Structure formats: structure tokens, C-alpha cells
Amino acid sequence: MNQYNNLGCKVDNNGVAFISIEREPVNALSYDFLKNLSLLFHELNKDDKVRIIILTSSLKHFSAGADLKERSIMSDEKSKNALDNFNDCFINIENCSKITICGINGYCLGGGAELSLCFDLRVADDTAIIGFPEVGIGIIPGAGGTQRLPKIIGLSNAKYWIYSAKKFNSDEALKYGFVNFKASHNVLDKCIEIANDIIKNAPISLIASKDAINNGFGKNIKEGLKIERKSYNKTLITEDRKEALNAFVEKR
Questions:
Q1: Closest C-alpha among 182, 67, 57 to residue 121
Q2: Is pLDDT at 75 greater than 80 in this prediction?
Q3: SS3 104
Q4: Is residue 132 within 8 Å of residue 113, measured between CB atoms?
Q5: Residues 108 and 129 sit within 8 Å (Cβ to Cβ)
Q6: Is 177 within 8 Å of 153 (Cβ atoms)?
Q7: Is the model's pLDDT at 4 over the cut of 60?
Q8: Which residues contact 165 (CB under 8 A, 6 or more apart)?
Q9: Long-range interactions of 2-11: CB distance < 8 A, separation 24+
Q10: Residues annotated as catalytic (active site), given as ranges
Q11: Which range among 28-37, 56-65, 75-84, 219-228 shows the weakest confidence by mean pLDDT?
């Protein structure tokens, strides 16, 4: 899986896939980089051995956002296509059936912050600086930022983050709920710790839970319960469920 430029990937024996983004100097999100990242997630999603995907940066920064040098020489039409490429990649990550964890260090700005929003869980270390500076340069967070951020930190908080174009440190991001955890030392170590809490649980139940949460979010309760029931029914005939019930009855 290492045929993708600027991306490292390995899968351990427990089914945890580790993606390392490594496009010098600041992981600027170019057209080809996002294409490759999207293809990699598509490949991992098809791999039954993979249960959790952890993405971190091997560089000093997570991602400073879109590749503005590339964008500056694009026509208006190509710029629109580039945005479609962002959205295709981010939707692919968001819809991935595996549990996804993102480790943030250094700058996580603009498109980089929008990338992190596509993950189930976010972890930041002491160096993390997170923000959406787009309105300061005459645009808006156009790769899902205006839609995903309110779901994560709430409507009014998202408006403040976007309107102010302010940059937030890891403590502030944790307080707002943008990140779920703060790493006291190595961000990857914290991601692995979280993965270990999750991976011990039933694989099909995890997939069904994610499907129910993602597809039911924002729906009215009646529609949401239908979605939940559909996901629940998928777990009824699994060996995991039968074994868990037997273990409970037998007090194992």
C-alpha cells in the first residue's frame, strides 16, 4: 500500500492501519495528494483485515491547508474542479466503514482542519494550532467546513471560529470539542491507546454503530430510529452476539 506518493501506510496484526502524510514542507493539500489519499482510503475500506485507521503527519505540521501555489495558477474552472476533488476525498473518508482516528500536530488550518473533521475522533498534541483562516483571504471554508464544523462544536461556536478566522491551541480546541483528546506526549501513542479501547469490541457491531450514528444524525427521532433498527438487525445473526450472550449466561 506504499505506492501512493507522500503517503506511508502499514497495517499491523491487530487490523490497525497507520497512514502517515508526508508532503514537505507542511502537507499542503494538492490535487494529486488528495486523489491518492482518497484511493488509499478506498483500498483500506475494502480490506476486511482492517478495522481501525489512524492518520497522522510525519512532519512538523499536520496540514497548513490547500496548496495555494498550485491553486494560484489554476483557472476558475480548474479551481472548481479542485474543490470537487477535496469533497470527493473527504466524503470518501467520512463514509469509510472503519473507525477512523486523526492525530493533529502543528498547523491544522483551512483544508487541513476540514480534513480532520472527516474522522470519527481527533487527537491533538501541545503543538497543535487549529483554525479556519479562509474569510481573511476572501473565501469561505468550502470543502465541508461550514457544514461539518457546526455538527462537531455547535452552531454558534462554529460561526465564531469561521467568522473570526482565529487560530486555537489544543487546550482551546479540546474545550470547544473540536478535538476529543489531548496527547500529553506523542500524538500517535494516544491514538493507539484509543484504538486499543475500541478494537477489543465486536467488529460488526462497530461498523453497525458507525452506520447508525452517521446516517441518523440530524434526522428526526422517528426516522433516526428506523435507521438504528436497520443497523441493529445486522448484528442479530452474528457469531459475536451469540458468543457474548453465552459468555454472559455462563458468567465468563
A1: 182
A2: no
A3: strand
A4: yes
A5: yes
A6: yes
A7: yes
A8: 131, 132, 133, 134, 135, 136
A9: 4/36, 4/37, 4/39, 4/40, 5/32, 5/33, 5/36, 6/33, 6/36, 7/33, 7/36, 7/37, 7/40, 8/58, 9/40, 9/44, 11/44, 11/47, 11/49, 11/50
A10: 114, 134
A11: 75-84
